[in-house]
């Protein structure tokens, strides 16, 4: 009897890699795997952790830290003279102020417009809602250079809204920054709102509160964690925006990102650019800290339902939200893109023509194109395919490691640090990454060749940009798997490898397809890091668009409009196809509805 009582107190869940079998009188007895199986499991998880870590160290941490060190050394000796010189310049503080102002205004406006979109797409049921889910994803993955060109075509010279006099103003710049980020707010807030328990709001209505008052006093405070997370993400994306600010802001409205690019390319001031990148690190770090504190403070009193409540049919009371969402989709998203397409088909006299597209096939010598745009399209697709494959492979390994729940406190802390390291590329600008790769990859790790002379670094940089988003698509799916399924497989004698092959990987299937499509679209349109790394004869399509738009040769601007249409169409088609792979109508299925794990 004492032995049976002792055995009955053993944990219901076996140790990692172990299985259970029935003992006397129904007691559970842990049957550990053979030592060889346990050793292989440890080796497998070690490799799954070490491979992404090595990739991040060589191609992310080392370049970024080397860039920062450039600002504190002179001919190999410590020298901090560049710090007071850069931060003592009035333009530096003006650029920092512009960065904070642009990102703050864009985040506020994106939240105001994104909340009605979240309500319509996640709380209401109507025909065509699935299609709208997919269409709302397209603005987020459209290349920033396409967004900038679209707003320039709308408000710039010869544009239909040129009469408003808003070209090269803060207003147009903020609108363009909001363009992709309404989708971020809608996804982040909507996935949280869909699982929010509505009983408190219903109780307030029963007690006599009106619909608006109940929403302001009950629902809105409950949405605070999601709103804080969404606002922080938008602020983060906008404060590190490059293509939009470069095209629409010019030198007057430069942010830290474009100023780093200007110091590097125009003035070859590597030390100044490195010191200025410190300001960007501080902005990103402060944003993440404030976001985390606001989210934790708001999550304490929030109750989420495991199953999302049924959506309701739209009623008269929903018309204001539908109206705001419709205006946002029409005026903010559709009009700039439609203007871009129409202006790419117009000639200088106001007639219709396809001459701008014909130029892309046989470019004249005066245009800044290394080869026909068809060559740039093919090169961009090949590079994006390699980058997407790298991001998916590493993302799957990282998601598998982070989805496990270690019992040891030390392992849990290490897992948290690993998660934070993986997310760092999301907060470090692509320009900083590209600049860092440029100064470190001449003979990496003592190898006898210069990686900068080939296009190898371009897919590497693009994979780093896409990697955090791939992880955030896959991780909620793995965390949403019921541990009892894995436990049952282990009970039947399955090894850890068999559990992965028969449970984890099959459930990842469609979400992995979505992650692959998402990373492919994001890599195809990457502009910041790629602009540093392109070599003569290896011009990608986003870089070609940027150079055509900024060139003064006759016909260059029209050719840039046409190239932007081609790039935007490719990206949109890829994303819409990938969006068809969604599980349960939302990214990553029900697991993706957990707050804070959408991106």
UniProtKB/TrEMBL annotation:
Q: Where are the transmembrane segments?
A: 38-62, 100-122, 134-158, 170-194, 215-248, 273-294, 315-335, 379-402, 422-442, 454-475, 487-508, 557-578
* Start and end residues of each stretch annotated as Disordered: 1-32
| CDD domains in alphabetical order | TM_PBP2
- What topology does the record note for this protein and the membrane? Multi-pass membrane protein
Q: Name one Pfam family in it.
A: BPD_transp_1
Task: Tell me if Transmembrane helix is a UniProt keyword of this record.
Answer: yes
Instruction: Please list the residue ranges annotated as the ABC transmembrane type-1 domain.
Output: 96-294, 377-578
Q: Which UniProt keywords apply?
A: Cell inner membrane, Cell membrane, Membrane, Transmembrane, Transmembrane helix, Transport
Keyword Methyltransferase part of the UniProt annotation: no
Q: Which InterPro entries match?
A: MetI-like, MetI-like_sf
Its primary localisation, in coarse terms, equals membrane
UniProt biased composition (Basic and acidic residues): 1-10
List localization entries: Cell inner membrane; Cell membrane
The UniProt similarity line reads: Belongs to the binding-protein-dependent transport system permease family.
UniProt name for this protein:
Iron ABC transporter permease
């Amino acid at each position: 009897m004492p032995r049976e009582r002792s055995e009955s107190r053993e944990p219901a869940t076996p140790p990692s890699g172990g299985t259970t079998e029935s003992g006397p009188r129904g007691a559970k007895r842990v049957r550990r795997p053979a030592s060889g199986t346990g050793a292989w499991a440890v080796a497998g998880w070690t490799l799954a952790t070490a491979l992404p870590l090595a990739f991040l160290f060589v191609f992310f941490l080392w370049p970024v830290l080397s860039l920062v060190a450039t600002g504190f050394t002179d001919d190999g000796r410590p020298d901090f003279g560049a710090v007071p010189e850069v931060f003592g310049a009035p333009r530096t503080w003006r650029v920092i102020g512009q960065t904070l102002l642009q990102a703050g205004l864009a985040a506020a406006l994106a939240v105001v417009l994104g909340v009605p979109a979240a309500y319509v797409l996640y709380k209401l049921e109507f025909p065509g809602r699935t299609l709208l889910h997919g269409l709302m994803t397209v603005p987020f993955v459209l290349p920033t250079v396409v967004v900038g060109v679209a707003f320039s075509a709308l408000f710039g010279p010869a544009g239909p809204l040129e009469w408003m006099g808003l070209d090269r103003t803060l207003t147009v710049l903020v609108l363009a920054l909001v363009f992709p980020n309404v989708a971020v707010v809608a996804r982040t807030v909507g996935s949280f709102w869909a699982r929010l328990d509505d009983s408190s709001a219903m109780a307030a209505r029963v007690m006599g509160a009106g619909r608006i008052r109940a929403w302001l006093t009950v629902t809105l405070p409950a949405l605070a964690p999601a709103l804080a997370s969404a606002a922080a993400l938008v602020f983060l994306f906008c404060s590190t925006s490059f293509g939009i600010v470069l095209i629409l802001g010019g030198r007057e409205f430069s942010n830290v990102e474009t100023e780093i690019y200007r110091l590097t390319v125009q003035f070859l001031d590597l030390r100044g650019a490195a010191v200025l990148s410190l300001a960007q690190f501080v902005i990103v770090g402060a944003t993440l800290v404030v976001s985390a504190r606001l989210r934790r403070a708001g999550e304490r009193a929030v109750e989420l339902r495991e199953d999302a409540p049924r959506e309701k049919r739209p009623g008269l009371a929903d018309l204001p939200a539908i109206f705001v969402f419709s205006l946002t989709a029409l005026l903010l998203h559709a009009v700039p893109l439609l203007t871009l397409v129409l202006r790419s088909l117009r000639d200088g006299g106001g007639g219709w023509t396809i001459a701008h597209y014909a130029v892309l096939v046989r470019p004249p010598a005066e245009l800044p194109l290394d080869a026909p745009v068809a060559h740039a399209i093919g090169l961009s697709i090949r590079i994006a395919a390699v980058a997407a494959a790298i991001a998916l492979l590493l993302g799957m390994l990282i998601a598998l490691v982070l989805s496990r729940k270690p019992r040891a406190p030390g392992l849990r802390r290490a897992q948290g640090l690993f998660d934070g390291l993986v997310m760092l590329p999301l907060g470090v600008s692509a320009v900083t990454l590209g600049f860092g790769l440029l100064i470190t990859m001449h003979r990496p790790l003592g190898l006898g060749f210069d990686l900068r002379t080939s296009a190898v670094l371009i897919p590497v940089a693009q994979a780093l940009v896409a990697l955090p988003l791939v992880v955030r698509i896959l991780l909620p799916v793995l965390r949403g798997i019921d541990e009892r399924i894995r436990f049952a497989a282990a009970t039947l004698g399955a090894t850890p490898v068999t559990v992965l092959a028969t449970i984890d990987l099959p459930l990842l299937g469609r979400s992995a397809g979505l992650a692959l499509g998402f990373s492919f679209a994001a890599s195809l349109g990457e502009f910041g890091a790629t602009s540093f790394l392109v070599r003569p004869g290896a011009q990608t399509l986003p870089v070609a668009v940027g150079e055509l738009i900024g060139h003064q040769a006759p016909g260059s601007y029209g050719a840039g409009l046409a190239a932007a249409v081609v790039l935007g169409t490719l990206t949109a088609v890829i994303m819409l196809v990938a969006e068809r792979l969604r599980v349960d109508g939302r990214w990553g299925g029900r697991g993706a509805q957990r707050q804070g794990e959408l991106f």
